[in-house]
Amino acid sequence: MPIMPPIKVLLDFVYTQLFVKPPKPTQSFAGRTVIVTGANVGLGLETARYAARLGAAKVIITSRRVDAGERAKQDIYKSEKLSDPTLVEVWQLDLCDYENVQAFAARAEQLPRLDALVCNAGVATSHFKLAQGHETTITTNVISTFLLALLLLPKLRATARETGTLTHLEIVSSLVHFFTDFPERDARPGQLFSDLSDEKKARMDDRYNVSKLLEVFAVRQLAADPELMGARSDTSPYPVVVTAVNPGFCDSALRREFYEGSKITKYALKAFELVMARSSEEGARNLVLAVAPSKADQTWHGQYISEGKVKPPSKFVLSEAGLKQQKRVWEEMAVILDKIQPGVTKNF
């Protein structure tokens, strides 16, 4: 079961949702190429819209269904009064298919440059189902997300080197990583992801929270390894700034499955959203600020970002036990990733 986070976390959540709005991004994206995954609706769509509005040279939006992506593209062109037919492109991406992720990355490697990868696509479900041998939430939100990130990290590094600017890798995480006690951490060595894929052991009401915790762990471990990130020196900035970003509780299609439950649950959720939820545009501000060229500098590297600023993640993440789990999550996921794409975690 999900846990009740500390009262201070809950009070901070209520206060920020009701009274704090992330600032609107104004930094120019001129000349930059941005990929936003899961950009046919909600936060991804609004993030892509901002990138186009702020002058990006190319915005690539992904969707599992190209027709849905094309509708999103036309919506952006209409709202921003765009005329350049090459500015926004729609690429198909299915995070439940590793071969599809690999093909997408191979295509993206051919781009002249890649300045920002916003890994926004994700899933929240209470129904257990396997995809590529792992529970769908873990496959989508964690394994495929970091497979894509690592496959495109060399392109981000090359762009940083060639342009003399910082590039950005953003993993869209969530405050809900505070809301799990992560009992799966008691799995035997090497069995964490196996236990998460065991239907008999699955705690699906807590699974989305766990997936967001795993994302925070992986971002922090990736950022802590200068060899992986390719630091130019011990004192110079990282060429790629990697962040875990919390957009806040927003209007989103992510929770559509939960409307299929009882009427009481459906109406309670709708009432909570009506009072507490930010708009997708407000949530997207966080995502844009975390890849803004003159905003998200090297001090943001490896950090948890919320309300457009660096904030501490959960106390568990920062604890000694959390650090051990962080290393373990990365080591066990690296084995999986290297089986999918040999050397993907070591070839930088």
Model description:
- With 348 residues, the chain is α/β, with parallel strands linked by helices.
- The chain has helices at residues 7-19, 42-53, 66-80, 98-108, 136-163, 192-196, 204-224, 226-229, 263-276, 280-289, 315-318, 320-340; strands spanning 33-36, 58-63, 88-92, 116-119, 130-131, 134-135, 167-172, 240-246, 304-306, 309-311.
- Strand 9 (304-306) and strand 10 (309-311) form a beta hairpin.
- The chain is globular and about 50 Å long.
- 47% of the residues are buried.
Mean pLDDT: 92
Summarize the amount of helix as a percent range: 40-55%
What share of the residues does DSSP label as strand, in percent? 5-15%
pLDDT < 50 stretches? none
Task: Provide the descriptors you would attach to this structure in a database record.
Rossmann fold; two-stranded antiparallel ribbon; 348 residues; alpha/beta; single chain; 8-stranded mixed sheet
Task: Provide a quick synopsis of the model.
The protein has 348 residues and is of the alpha/beta class.
Task: Detail the topology: elements first, then pairings.
Elements: H1 7-19, E1 33-36, H2 42-53, E2 58-63, H3 66-80, E3 88-92, H4 98-108, E4 116-119, E5 130-131, E6 134-135, H5 136-163, E7 167-172, H6 192-196, H7 204-224, H8 226-229, E8 240-246, H9 263-276, H10 280-289, E9 304-306, E10 309-311, H11 315-318, H12 320-340
Parallel strand pairs: 1-2, 1-4, 2-3, 4-7, 7-8, 8-9
Antiparallel strand pairs: 5-6, 9-10
Helix pairs in contact: 2-3, 2-10, 4-5, 5-7, 7-12
